[in-house]
Write a structure and sequence with these properties.
Helix content: 10-25%
Radius of gyration: 20 Å
Number of strands: 14
Number of helices: 9
Strand content: 15-25%
Structural class: alpha/beta
Length: 375
Amino acid sequence: MSTETPGIDPLLALRAPRDPACDVFLTGTVFLDIVFTGLDSAPVRGTESWARGMGSSPGGVANMATALARLGLRTSLAAAFGDDHYGEYCWDALEQGEGIDLSMSHTVPGWHSPVTVSMAYEGERTMVSHGHEAPAPTVAVAPPPTEPAPSGPAFPRCPPRARAAIASLAPGRAEPWVATAARDGALIFADVGWDETGRWDLDALPDLAHCEAFLPNAEEAMRYTRTDCPRAAAHALAERVPLAVVTLGAEGAYAVDGRTGAAAAVPAIEVEALDPTGAGDVFVAGFVTGTLADWPLADRLAFAGLTAALSVQEFGGSLSAPGWAEVAAWWQRIRTCAGQDPAALERYAFLDDLLPTTARAWPLRRAVPTIGFRQ
C-alpha cells in the first residue's frame, strides 16, 4: 500500500517534455523480508521466543526503491525475481503496491527468492539471510552494433535514461552500467559498505569518478580519508566528488559541496527508534529527492534526516519508508506541541511550500503487508 499523498510531485516545477520518463534508476538484490517484532529481548540459545507481531515485505534493494517511490519519484528497478511464491509476492507488492517500474526486471525460472528473517528488539535488529546469487547480471551495457546481443530471458537491457541512479560501491569492482548511466546524463548517488580487505583506498572504488554524491557513514568516511574527524573526512571527500555527505547516526549529518566549498550540518531528530532497518536507504532517498528538486544543501540534509527519523519509528525496511502523508502529519503535529524550540522548527519551514494545508492525524495507521492474505 503506497503512502504517497496524491498531488505531491517534488519535481513538478522542473519537469519538461524532453525530460527522462524515469527519475531514479537502481539495481540490486530483492529479498523477502520476514520481520518479527515485539520481542522483549534477544533470542536465547535453547529456548523458544514468541514475537507479538510479524510482517512480510520486499527487502534488500526494494527498501530504497520503495522509499524513493513513496516520495513521489518515478522509480525504475532492475532486479532478478524468483519464480516462487515469494518472488511473485515481491513483484506484485513493488509494481502494484508502490508503483515501481519493473520493466527492467525479470523472473528467473528455477531460482528461489533470497530471504531475510529480521528480529527487532531494544531498538536493534538481528538478521539471518539465505539465498544464492542470481544466475545472470541484472544490468549490462549494450554490445556494440556489430556484435549480436546474447539471447534468453536473463539478458538485461541497458539502464534507462534517468535523472539519477543509485549505486553501491565496492573495492575493486566497477559496474559498467554506472558509467553508461552517467554518460547519458544521470546523477550518480553512491554509498559504500565495509571494506573487508582493510585497505580503505578510494582509488579502489573506480565508479567514484562517475558520482555526483558519495554518502558514507562517519566510520567509513574517516577510514577512507585517513582522518579522525567526520567533518574533516567530508571536506577531504569533497575533493573527489561534487557532493560529500557523511552520516553521523544520532548526531545527524554533515555535507560539503565540492564545487562551491559550502558546508551544512543538520542535527538528528530525537525519536524512539523501534527498528533501524532501512533507515540508511530512506536517508539516501530523501537526499536524492531534495537534490533533484534543487533545494538548498541544508534543506536536503534536514529532509533526509526527517524521513530517516520517521522510518525508525516503524518496524521493517520497505514497510517503514515514509511518504508525504507521514511527513505532512509530522509537520502538522510538531508545530502544535508545547515546548518546541522555534529555531529548531525553523529548520523545517521549507516544508510549508511543499505540503498540503491539511494532513491526516498523527500517528498514522500504517499498512503491514503479508504474504498470508490476498485482497
